[in-house]
Amino acid sequence: MKKLLLFVTLLSLTTLGWAGSDRENSNDRLDHAARVLHDIMAAPDTGIPEEVLEHARCVAVVPHMIKGGFVFGAENGRGVATCRTANGWSAPAFFAITGGSWGLQIGIEGVDLVMIIQNEKGMQQLLSSKFQLSGDASAAAGPVGRHASANTDWKLETEILTYSRARGVFAGLTLTGASIRRDDDSMQAIYGRHVSTRAVLLGEKAVPSAAESFLNAVRGAKAQAVRAAK
User: Fold this and answer.
1) Strand 101-102 relative to strand 175-176: parallel, antiparallel, unpaired?
2) Neighbours of 1 (CB within 10 A)
3) Which residue has the higher pLDDT, 2 or 163?
4) What gap in Å lies between CA 204 and CA 156, rounded to an integer?
5) What is the average pLDDT value for the chain, to the nearest integer?
6) Helix/strand/coil (H, E, C) string of the chain?
7) Distance of CA 177 to the CA centre of its chain
């Protein structure tokens, strides 16, 4: 009986350690995502255009996605997303992204990814907790610069605009076939059990204090774009 009690105690401590680690990693991800968005928008001529941010339904950031090879797929990418609600931007939901084929950043090991979800259909895919880019949801490289192109195809035909930053270079990114799914460990660490991605992104959960830096970066992104365009 003593051995059994000792085993249960050790298991409980291990579980608490894992939970604490998941929480710290999730908080770090929020801080890193905030810095990525702020740094990208601080570039006067190569940020996300004001028009794109104005129409954004949701914003998702994957800081420092790791990959490798000559033609590579996304591996172990973990990000955060927030959506517009009647009361402002929602608490962040945590997700993972895997697979997919990438353009241009051949041989790069670390890439920051930003996704702008533009319409209701794209938002519903994000709320579903699992979908595939260019399969369930259309995705295309987003326009870059002070203003979006006069060509409105980016706004009318695409649900998700994708961007990347690698070695200081920021550009629209073609990302095909990547799978996006809920990050269960982070969601449970921050919100507890049985909290859905839908509930978080629809504004039904309070914003955790650790998320303020990320949400402030999202709120300030359009203002940065407006200042850069002047």
Assistant:
1) antiparallel
2) 5
3) 163
4) 29
5) 75
6) CHHHHHHHHHHHHHHHHHHHHHHHHHHHHHHHHHHHHHHHHHCCCCCCCHHHHHCCCEEEEEEEEECCCCCCCEEEEEEEEEEEECCEECCCEEEEEEECEECCCCCCCEEEEEEEECCHHHHHHHHCCEEEECCCECEEECCCCCCCCCCCHHHHCCCEEEEEEECCEEEECCEECCEEEECHHHHHHHHCCCCCHHHHHCCCCCCCHHHHHHHHHHHHHHHHHHHHHC
7) 17
Nearest to 111 by CA among 149, 64, 71: 64
| 202, β-bridge pairs | none
pLDDT band (50, 70, 90) for residue 183: very high
- The half-sphere exposure of 11 on its side-chain side, counting CA atoms within 13 A, is 6
Smallest CA-to-CA distance from 183 within 94, 117, 69, 118 is with: 94
Tell me the two tokens of residue 27: 């908080």
| Token pair 């991800």 in the structure block, residue | 29
pTM of the model: 0.79
CA dist list (Å): 18 to 149, 185, 192, 201: 47, 9, 14, 25
Tell me the one-letter amino acid at 80.
Answer: V
Other CB atoms within a 10 A radius of the CB of residue 27 amount to 19
| Token digits of residue 21 | 């680690």
Question: Rounded to whole angstroms, what are the CA distances from 127 to 51, 117, 174?
Answer: 24, 11, 22
